[in-house]
Each structure stands twice: as C-alpha cells, then as structure tokens.
Design a protein that fits this description.
By secondary structure, the protein is an alpha+beta fold. The protein is built from three helices and three strands, in the order αααβββ.
Length: 107
C-alpha cells in the first residue's frame, strides 16, 4: 500500500524473499557475515513478523520448474545477477518446453 512507501521491499524481504547479504574478507567492503538470527530479530522489531527464510522456495518450488508454464526468463551475459537466475529452458512434465530462457549476448 502507499502507506508503506519505500519500506515495502523491506517488509517483503522479511516475509517472502529473504536474501542473505554479506561481505567476506575477500571483498572490498567491510567484513559482514550473514546472521539469520540477527536478521530475523530485526524483522520482528521493525514489522512484528517472523522472517520466513524458505518461503520462496516452499511457495514457488525453487528450481523445480517442471510444473510451471508460460514463463520466459531473460539473462544478459553481463548481468551480475544472472548466475543466480534460471539459465536453461525447462521441459514440463509432459515434455513440452513451457519455461523458456533467453540468454542475451552483450546484455
């Protein structure tokens, strides 16, 4: 809703899309290990909700896309997030290609 303003993403990250963010000693950023317990405590404090670490995997099935249909994923080979994306087309349970991946060279 409009009343959330730009805080809507923070709420969704707590309730649906927990994404670990951290930096290691090999990063140019200050060391910051991922701690789900601290993250969940922050969600409880800010939103009074319990962080659901595995909600997206449970709800959407993770990379088990054989029951999905009519989805197109696009990935650019220069996109730093593409490594975590769907990079291969998937055949449905009936053998029909219903999840298509478009790999964009130079994109």
């Amino acid at each position: 809703t409009a009343s959330l303003g730009d805080k809507g993403w923070d709420y969704q990250a707590c309730t649906e899309m927990v994404m670990p963010m951290c930096q290691t000693k090999d990063s140019m950023f200050e060391l910051m290990p991922w701690n789900f317990t601290e993250y969940a405590a922050g969600c409880l404090e800010r939103w009074n909700v319990t962080a659901r670490r595995d909600w997206a995997m449970t709800n959407y099935g993770g990379r088990h896309l054989s029951a999905a249909s009519n989805i197109i994923f696009s990935n650019g080979d220069l996109d730093p997030w593409s490594g975590g994306g769907v990079v291969n087309s998937v055949l449905s349970l009936t053998g029909i290609n219903t999840v298509t991946v478009l790999n964009i060279t130079g994109g």
